[in-house]
Specification:
Belongs to the Mediator complex subunit 24 family. Its main location: nucleus. Keywords: Activator, Nucleus, Transcription, Transcription regulation. This protein has 994 residues and is an all-alpha fold. Among the domains are: 2-226, no CATH class; 244-326 and 335-401; 414-520; 534-681, no CATH class. The chain has 50 helices and no strands. The relative contact order is 0.07. Mean pLDDT is 83; it is low at 400-406, 684-698 and 824-880.
């Protein structure tokens, strides 16, 4: 009924030649108050009357334009109706519609929610219609090889409308939203564009408009990159010096030395994206970080670990990075990687570092490095000669030094350790019954000097540590006592049991049981570790150990051990059972000593008898005593402490000569016992290298003073020394994530210059990877909100706010990606982590062979063998985005978004509001689609409230379009709502200026 009235009114208006204002006044009498003309198809009615004849009625079209200006009809309805016009043979009607579009398209917007719902589809339909018009003209030219004046004018107007659409960011963003709404329909536009392109090629037709082909391509393949988004990057280009890579690798090697190469590759890819590094720059930073860290370490353990990492792990990281970042179809030389050669050129400019490394390692470090890299086809012999010539002067100086003054090169030992490791693995895999004596000799030789450290370091970085551990476990299983066995065979078996047990215990102490043992292993050693071994951050209940003991065995052991010279070999209890039942024995001894039933001399005799036969017994006894000490009061610690000290007392000369290989086993057992004791009752000055290795540092100095001292060292160096990383990790555990994060952020706020702020932020970002997930949660929920709210305007101002926002975004991205690529890591994170989630074991790449015997390498998965295999598997793992956030991290992000909503409950622009803008913009700029799960947590009205306060010149449609997941209807609805708000605010600003 209403449509009939509208049509009649249009007829009357045309007959009586009403003006636009007259039509507007009278149409309002027909439309109900407050109701849009779209409800009654006003645009459709007007266009029906305007396009009846062969020529469009200009008066009626003016009525439509007036209705648009008076908001009686929406742009969405008008564009959708125009897109339905198919009588292209009526050139004048089509041209009139193009003229009409040319006059109104620049002001296209929405005024109501109902219009927002149909605008994306309407604009996409209009693009399809424009493509049809263009295709019709090009097809006519292809056939007739000419255009008449009307067709030429029509083509020109079509190009003008397309150009206005392209240059209108709001419309481009609307098209981008609309193409996700109906992908199949948008596919028709691409097909139409392909037909136009073919037609233009076949006819050799060149439109007068110079850029129209580019515009058509942008419309057919509209992408988010076509939408403007001003970058907040203070340094749009990669900074000349970066302070992020070395500290990050230091923390990772410190905490996760067992991790698969893909773990480090993922971390470096994250840095590459954040810093916009080229492959050359990234490779240079990785190699330089290895040298800087290696130049700092003073202890053999860290020397071997960093040396092995630099020489064995870094080449594999580079190879995988190069394979991942290689463009599809890109051809690279077979014998070298060009980016690696360029990276070495950059490295040679750092002469001071290389000179120091040459002196420290007593060798030409570059030559050593590249000689190994030629075998892996990172460089070729020609490059080695070229770079060696550039370092020739330094090499001559090294040769002239007094040979007696040169320390043996640790690099030589590291590289040579690869062969002994393979030999040990091969011997361990041989039939146990045939090689017991030879195996004992090999294992005892491993414990001489620092050979064990070297082999562990190489095994760790080459991904063969679990293989080493599994074969040691099998050796320990095979060496369990056989009842009735006597003589030399029994002695060899017991020594093998002792050596393998001690080596395994040391490895578990160093790397954590989660990193090297399977979850449900049924071997004796794995059972003992699960139930009886004390580990850092994994306390054991001593009562559970006691309950496991067999009362009869405990009584028999007590009776035998109480004798002056016990004969353990004559009792009917095996070595493995003694290890499991010692907790019951020691508990009875402690009770009897407390009740003074046993004297100190009696206790000493029992303890001496325990450690006299096998050093494994001392370790098992100490493990129980340490667990016991954790469960008693302070005044009850003296006796168990004295008992542990008795196990550390050196044996007599007679005892030292009574057993073979006693010195190596004794030294290793002392290290293990000191480490166990230190975990429970830390000493101020630990002497054992094993204690230093696991960063269990304790000091009577206040935490704040310790932090100041260590930060002074870090800040002066510009990189993170190993010792500083250890202290910071201890401070993290002692003070908590919030405390350490606050202290680190305070150091950023102390900086006055942008360069210093960015340098400090990079170092802080790397340090927070000591526990990135916990640190990020503390940063978002406790540290940053408190700083922004309580200290705004004091010492937190621009550019401090920008740097804080960037740090928050970096941490969120890293926390999200860390959880993702952990699932594809070869190992679990060490037990020191606060996150107890398990990591999957995925073996995707093969290790290169180091000798002809493949038995030693078959179980390793850490080295790149086939680039095609890697590209099809590992790259998929590393490039996929996570599909789920950790609950605590999600809650932290939601919390800070709620804080942002509180900041935006105002119409006044403030530093708080600007911080919100920077945070959201940097999240999109740095994270892109990889933080989609984070962006999905944005509150509904956050961006709209931000738009009302901020200037539209700062918030762009490119930012808005990137914020939402346009694959979902909710995401598209939110995006078009914010885009429309942005558009209307923009039009309002323009009208004010007019």
């Amino acid at each position: 009924m209403k449509e009939n009235k509208i049509l009649k009114l249009i007829h009357v208006a045309w007959r009586e030649r009403w003006s636009d204002s007259q039509f507007g006044i009278n149409i309002k009498n027909v439309l109900p108050r407050g109701v849009s003309g779209d409800v009654y198809n006003l645009a459709d009615c007007i266009l029906q009357q305007a396009l009846i004849g062969s020529t469009a009625n200009p008066l009626v079209l003016n009525y439509l334009k007036h209705s648009l200006c008076a908001h009686l009809v929406s742009h969405a309805a008008v564009l959708r109706r125009i897109a339905k016009y198919e009588h292209f043979e009526r050139l004048y009607c089509t041209t009139s519609l193009l003229d009409f579009l040319d006059s109104v398209i620049a002001g296209a917007t929405c005024r109501a929610k109902t219009e927002e719902a149909i605008l994306p589809g309407a604009v996409v339909s209009l693009i399809n219609w424009l493509m049809q018009v263009f295709a019709m003209i090009t097809a006519h030219y292809e056939i007739h090889r000419e255009l008449n004046s009307e067709q030429s004018y029509m083509l020109g107007q079509c190009c003008l409308v397309i150009e206005k659409v392209i240059k209108n960011q709001f419309l481009m963003a609307t098209i981008y939203v609309g193409c996700h709404e109906d992908p199949d329909y948008y596919g028709q536009i691409r097909e139409r564009y392909a037909a136009i392109k073919t037609s233009l090629t076949n006819s050799n037709f060149s439109p007068t408009h110079p850029s129209i082909e580019t515009y058509l391509h942008q419309l057919a393949y509209v992408d988010v990159h076509h939408l403007d988004m001003p970058l907040l990057d203070i340094q749009p280009k990669p900074e000349p010096v970066t302070y992020c890579v070395q500290p990050l690798l230091t923390v990772d090697v410190l905490l996760n030395p067992c991790n698969d190469t893909s773990y480090y590759v993922a971390k470096m890819q994250m840095v590459q994206r954040l810093k916009k590094f080229s492959n050359t720059r990234l490779f240079y930073e990785i190699v330089r970080a290895g040298f800087v860290s290696l130049s700092n370490v003073m202890e053999t353990t860290h020397d071997t670990m960093w040396g092995a990492f630099t020489f064995f792990k870094v080449p594999q990281i580079i190879k995988q990075l190069q394979a991942l970042n290689r463009a599809v179809g890109e051809q690279t030389p077979n014998d070298y990687i060009p980016e690696v050669v360029e990276a070495i050129e950059l490295l040679l400019e750092d002469k001071l570092l290389l000179d120091f490394m040459d002196s420290k390692c007593s060798c030409n470090i570059i030559e050593y490095l590249l000689n190994d890299w030629t075998k892996q086809h990172l460089v070729n012999d020609m490059h080695v000669k070229h770079f060696a010539a550039q370092r020739e002067g330094t090499s001559v100086l090294l040769q002239k030094r007094d040979a007696s003054a040169q320390a043996p090169s640790i690099i030589n030992f590291i590289i040579r350790a690869e062969v002994p490791l393979s030999g040990v693995l091969k011997t361990l895999s041989t039939d146990y019954n045939k090689v017991q004596e030879a195996l004992l000799g090999v294992l005892c030789q491993v414990l001489v000097g620092n050979s064990f450290d070297l082999i562990l370091s190489v095994a760790t970085v080459e991904g063969r540590l679990k293989t080493f551990v599994s074969r040691l476990i099998q050796c320990n299983e095979n060496s369990k006592q056989v009842p009735g066995e006597m003589g030399k065979a029994s002695i060899i078996r017991s020594t093998l049991f002792d050596v393998s047990f001690l080596m395994l215990t040391f490895i578990v102490q160093t790397y954590g049981s989660d990193a090297v043992l399977s979850n449900n292993g049924d071997s004796f050693f794995e059972k003992w570790v699960r139930e009886c071994m004390v580990e850092r951050n994994k306390p054991k209940n001593p009562r559970n150990m006691i309950v496991m003991c067999d009362e009869n065995m405990v009584d028999e052991l007590l009776l035998n051990l109480s004798k002056p010279e016990p004969q353990l070999k004559n009792i009917n209890i095996t070595w493995q059972d003694i290890c499991l039942n010692l907790p019951g024995v020691l508990y009875q001894v402690l009770i009897a000593w407390e009740k003074e039933t046993l004297s100190s001399g009696d206790v000493k005799n029992i303890l001496d008898n325990i450690k006299r036969r096998l050093f494994s017994f001392s370790v098992c006894a100490t493990s129980f005593l340490c667990a016991y000490m954790c469960s008693v009061k302070e005044n009850e610690l003296l006796k168990p402490l004295n008992m542990i000290q008795q196990f550390l007392a050196p044996p007599s000369a007679e005892e030292m000569s009574s057993q073979e290989n006693i010195k190596e086993r004794l030294g290793l057992s002392f290290q293990i016992i000191r480490k166990m004791q230190h975990d429970v009752r830390p000493t101020v000055n630990p002497k054992s290298r094993s204690i230093t290795l696991v960063q269990n540092l304790v000091s009577q100095t206040p935490l704040m003073d310790q932090f100041r001292d260590v930060w002074r060292t870090v800040n002066e160096n510009g990189w993170l020394p190993i010792r500083a990383a250890q202290i910071l990790e201890s401070l993290l555990h002692a003070g908590g994530a919030a405390w350490l994060t606050t202290r680190l952020l305070e150091e950023i706020l102390k900086c006055k210059y942008i360069h210093d702020m960015m340098k400090t932020m990079d170092i802080v970002f790397a340090i927070l990877h000591l526990d990135i997930e916990l640190s990020t949660e503390a940063l978002l929920t406790q540290v940053v909100p408190a700083m922004i709210q309580n200290r705004q305007g004091e010492d937190i101002d621009e550019p401090h706010l920008h740097v804080l926002a960037r740090l928050c975004v970096y941490c969120i991205i890293s926390a999200v990606e860390t959880r993702h690529y952990r699932n594809f890591s070869y190992q679990k994170k060490r037990s020191r982590s606060h996150d107890g989630d398990d990591m999957d074991l995925n073996n995707t790449v093969k290790m290169r062979k180091i000798n002809t015997d493949s038995s030693d390498n078959s179980s390793s998965n850490d080295f790149l063998g086939d680039s095609n295999l890697f590209n099809t598997h590992a790259s998929t793992h590393l490039r996929n985005t996570p599909n789920q956030l950790k609950e605590s991290l999600q809650n932290s992000i939601q919390y800070i978004f709620k804080i942002f909503q509180q900041f935006l409950q105002t119409d006044k622009l403030s530093l708080k509001v600007y911080f919100v803008y920077q945070f959201v913009s940097l999240l999109v700029e740095c994270g892109q689609e990889r933080v989609r799960l984070v962006l999905n947590l944005l509150p509904t009205n956050l961006i709209s409230n931000l738009l009302k306060v901020m200037l539209t010149d700062q918030i762009s449609v490119g930012l808005i379009a990137r914020l939402y997941d346009l694959r979902t209807s909710c995401g598209r609805q939110a995006a078009i709502a914010d885009l429309t708000l942005w558009r209307n605010l923009k039009l309002k600003e323009q009208s004010i200026h007019l």
